[in-house]
Amino acid sequence: MYQLWFDDAGTMRSAGLMNPARSAQTVLLRGTVDDSSGMGITVEPAGAPPTPPPRPSPC
């Protein structure tokens, strides 16, 4: 599972999930962009709660 994130001045906020089993997909991000300074994507185990890792790596 891929987790999408908004970066709010260093605080990561969940923006949705992507299914790695699909070869093509469109994902509508959940939440508003507001003052986000960036986005992130992490690989998460199935069933993981939507909490950011301690230090998400930039893509």
Largest sheet: 3 strands, antiparallel
Secondary structural class:
mainly beta
Alpha carbon gap, first and last residue: 16 Å
Number of strands: 3
Name the poorly predicted regions: none
Overall radius of gyration? 11 Å
Q: Assign an overall shape.
A: globular
Number of helices: 0
Strand content: 35-45%
> Within the largest sheet, what's the order of strands?
2-1-3
- Spell the H/E element sequence: EEE
Describe the structure.
Helices cover 0% and strands 36% of the residues. It has strands spanning 2-8, 11-18, 38-43. It is built from no helices and three strands. It is an all-beta fold. A three-stranded antiparallel β-sheet has the order 2-1-3, with no helix packed on it. The model has no long low-confidence stretch (mean pLDDT 81).
Features:
single chain; 59 residues; mainly beta; three-stranded antiparallel β-sheet
In brief:
By secondary structure, the protein is mainly beta. Helices cover 0% and strands 36% of the residues. The mean pLDDT is 81.
Reconstruct the topology from this structure:
Layout lengths: L1 E7 L2 E8 L19 E6 L16
Antiparallel strand pairs: 1-2, 1-3
